[in-house]
Structures are given as structure tokens and as C-alpha cells.
Design a protein that fits this description.
35% of the residues lie in helices and 27% in strands. It is of the alpha/beta class. The chain folds into two domains: 142 residues, Rossmann fold; 161 residues, Dihydrodipicolinate Reductase, domain 2, CATH 3.30.360. An eight-stranded mixed beta sheet has the order 8-9-10-7-11-12-13-14, with helices on one face. Helix 4 links the parallel strand 4 and strand 5. Helix 5 packs antiparallel against helix 10 and helix 8 packs across helix 10. The relative contact order is 0.16.
Amino acid sequence: MAKFKWCVIGTGSLAKMVASQLNKSGRHEIVSCYSRRLDSATDFAKKYGGTAFDNPKSAITADGVDGVYIVTPHNAHFRYAKLALELGKPVFCEKAFTVTATETDELIALAKEKNLYLCEAMWTWFSPSANKVKEWIDTDKIGRIKNASFTYHMKTTGRNDRHTDPRRAGGALLDITIYPITYAYRLWGIPKEITASGTIVGGVDFGEEIVFKYNGFEVNISASINDFKGFEKMKIQGEYGEISALLYHCKNGVTLKQSTLKKEKFKGKGPLFNLYLDEFDAVAEDIRSGKKESSFVPLKATSDVMHILDEIRRQIGLSFDSLEY
């Protein structure tokens, strides 16, 4: 089968990690790219292939483009996704899908109007280990859920300007807190009640403490970009067992413990860390088969999570008044 050909919008560190894996797979090819800095796009094209363009429209409409992958800072996702859809191209857009639920819902409506494929690039939906967790929950492996907790504390302040730049929607919520929120939503849906507090300095949220209430149990979420307290751990406690994982948002492994002697460890195929190929292979297959929505990530789910994020922002008093569009 011919390689699936991508236009990449955004040529930063994540784009480079993705491009390296795509090229090594032999199943994908980068044919065009765009960055606001032409020198960055040119360097990216020299290393990973394709043609660098000085405007996004030319990159999106370049010869052979099968799909557009958007991997810019959060504030630009909506703009480029909308442009790609208007130009008739399927879109695979990094998380956070947009900055607000209103933007997400507008893109979904546009994709349906144009009869085009649209999908959120989120590990939590594609990861074999996350899929296994959902299977264990759905098949009652640990019985009635008693409680669940997710921590995601990774000190990213000082590593990259975008992490604390209010003009680019920097902060914890859209960058890391979205992972446990999505994980909980995927397993149990929209919470019956949401309670959230956060630490905001200079228009940027450095962390959140969140409680989701469901029927009969709570999910506690703690996230921060300012420290490593709690690291990245997941634990789901049931009436006769528990599911746990470290680095749950990307590690391709998870443990089910039903007793001291009865333990099951799952490891997905491929590398220990489930990075990007599961996502891109699935999206390429979807688009080639004529689907307009992902087999893994329903558009309704992307919208629901964005509405949950909006509610958390409302509660913690986080606004995006300083955004650059």
C-alpha cells in the first residue's frame, strides 16, 4: 500500500518526534510543512522530508496531501483546522483540540458540512493499554468502582516558553490536566458533579485539584506543571480489585490486581512507551476507508471533554483574554 501523505502544520519539538516515528514506520510520508517561521519549516523539511511553505494554504493544498496534522501551540489549533477543512482536507489535530468548547463545536459542524474527516490526536483514546483498562472496567474485572485517583505532576516550567505563555494558552489544564480528565471521561462519561480549584499566576494556571462525582464514587485528579509531587500515577479501586499504572498517558503497560496472588500485567505490542504510530495508523486507515469520524475518538467525546474543561476554567477563574489568534 502507498504511504499515507501528511501536511504538518507546526514544526516544533513534538512535530519532530512524530515525524521521526512516521518516517521510520515506512507507512507514512511528510510531503509538506508550515511554520510561522520559515527557517524552522525549512530545517524540518530538510530533516524529515517534504516541502516547506511560507503560508499554510500552500502547504495544505500541496500535491499529494492525504491529511493535515496540526501540532502548533493550542491557540492556533482552531485557526489552522478551520482553514484545512475549508480547503477540503481531513484533519488530525493535537490536544487540546481547541481552546474552548465553542471552537470545537464550530469545527465539528464545519467538518460535517464539508463531509470531511476530523479527529483529535490524544494518546488516551488510541493507546492499547488505555483500551485494555476500558475493557477491564466494562467487563467488571474489579467489580463496582469505589474510587479512582489520577496524578500528573510534571515540572515543565522553564523548559519551553509556551508552557507559561498566556498568549498561547499555556498552563496545566490544556497541556497535562486534560489527560486524566479524558481518561476519566472515557471510562465513566460526563461527571454528575465537578468541583475544581486551581493556582493561577499572571493569567496562567500552574495546576488544578479536581473532583468528579459519579454514581457511588469519586475521581480525584491532581495536576501541576510546577513540581513532581505525586508524579504521574493512576489507581482505580474496585470492590474486589484494582487497576494501576505509572505514566498512564503514554506508557504501554497497565496492571490489574484482584488479589495478592492474582495479578495480570498488560503490555501492548511495540515499544514500552506507546507514542504516535498507533494514532497515525488508525487515522490513515479511517480516512482511506472513507470514514468521517475516528473509530477511536468520537467527535461527541472531544466536544464533551472540551465542555468539561470550560466548566473547570469557569470554576477556577481562568480566562484566555490574552490569547493571540
